């Protein structure tokens, strides 16, 4: 029995896998996931979604096929009693609000953070009503190049990246470039940015509890209408 991550998947097959898994990790329901495949001919549905953390746990279960198959056959996110707190399920076709330090709230802002032309953070509507909003995140990898680490909820990271979810708090970090984000998802309808360190070319953005800085200078929201475009520096 082998468990592998699928780098590519046919769009129709991808849609079928997402639907079968309830758009979340089979084990924990997290909506930042990878497509995985268990090569075993007794399983009708052998492709599934797993978050980076649970993938490690599932790899450890390869030596225990009955347990592994049970997890894959019963995706937690499609179970009616599943508690979706802290996950991205919106319950409707809309965008989550973005909360920034200083009480700034961005409504209906698909690209709330743009740095030097790079859309650092992007949110798209759910694929289906009741499904999770779709998060896209660009940060610098160890080679100093900006990289789409999360692509519409699909995790693209390798060993140089850290991903961790503790309840409704998410941590994504590149150990070498030091680019990172720490955010919370509240009730599916809000993303609160606690910390963000990102580079777009020569420019550097820092968001933390002290405020928002671009290249070391405070970023000022000029007037209310500017909030609709978020941080554009
Ligand atoms: Zn998981």
What does this structure look like?
This protein has helices at 11-20, 52-60, 65-73, and strands at residues 2-5, 34-39, 47-50, 97-100, 104-106, 113-115, 118-124, 134-140, 146-151, 154-155, 161-166, 169-174, 180-186, 190-200, 203-208, 211-214, 217-218, 231-232. The chain is mainly beta and 233 residues long. The protein folds into 2 domains: 2-78, no CATH class; 97-232, no CATH class. Strand 4 and strand 5 (104-106) form a beta hairpin. Bound molecules: zinc ion. Zinc ion binds next to helix 2.
Q: So what's the overall shape?
A: globular
- Domain unit count: 2
Bound compounds:
zinc ion
The Rg value, from CA coordinates, equals: 18 Å
Which structural class best describes the helix and strand composition?
mainly beta
Determine the fraction of residues in helical runs and give it as a percent range. 10-25%
Labels describing this entry:
9-stranded mixed β-sheet; mainly beta; 18 strands; binds zinc ion; 233 residues; 2 domains; 6-stranded mixed β-sheet
Mind sketching the topology for me?
Layout: E1 2-5, H1 11-20, E2 34-39, E3 47-50, H2 52-60, H3 65-73, E4 97-100, E5 104-106, E6 113-115, E7 118-124, E8 134-140, E9 146-151, E10 154-155, E11 161-166, E12 169-174, E13 180-186, E14 190-200, E15 203-208, E16 211-214, E17 217-218, E18 231-232
Parallel strand pairs: 4-14, 6-18
Antiparallel strand pairs: 1-2, 2-3, 4-5, 6-7, 7-8, 8-9, 9-10, 11-12, 12-13, 13-14, 14-15, 15-16, 16-17
Bound molecules: zinc ion.
């Amino acid at each position: 029995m082998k468990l592998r991550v699928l780098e590519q998947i046919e769009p129709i097959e991808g849609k079928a896998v997402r639907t079968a898994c309830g758009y979340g990790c089979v084990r924990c329901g997290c909506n930042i996931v990878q497509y995985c495949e268990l090569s075993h001919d007794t399983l009708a549905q052998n492709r599934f979604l797993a978050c980076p953390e649970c993938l490690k746990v599932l790899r450890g279960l390869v030596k225990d096929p009955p347990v592994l198959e049970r997890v894959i056959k019963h995706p937690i996110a499609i179970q009616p009693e599943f508690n979706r707190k802290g996950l991205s399920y919106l319950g409707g076709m809309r965008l989550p609000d973005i909360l920034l330090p200083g009480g700034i709230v961005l409504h209906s802002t698909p690209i709330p953070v743009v740095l030097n032309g790079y859309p650092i953070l992007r949110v798209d509507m759910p694929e289906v009503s009741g499904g999770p909003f779709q998060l896209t995140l660009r940060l610098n990898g160890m080679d100093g190049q900006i990289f789409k680490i999360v692509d519409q909820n699909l995790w693209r990271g390798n060993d140089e990246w850290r991903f961790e979810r503790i309840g409704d708090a998410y941590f994504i970090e590149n150990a070498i470039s030091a680019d990172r984000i720490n955010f919370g998802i509240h009730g599916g309808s809000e993303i609160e940015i606690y910390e963000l360190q990102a580079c777009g070319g020569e420019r550097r953005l820092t968001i933390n509890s002290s405020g928002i800085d671009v290249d070391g200078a405070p970023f000022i929201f000029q007037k209310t209408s500017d909030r609709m475009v978020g941080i554009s520096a």
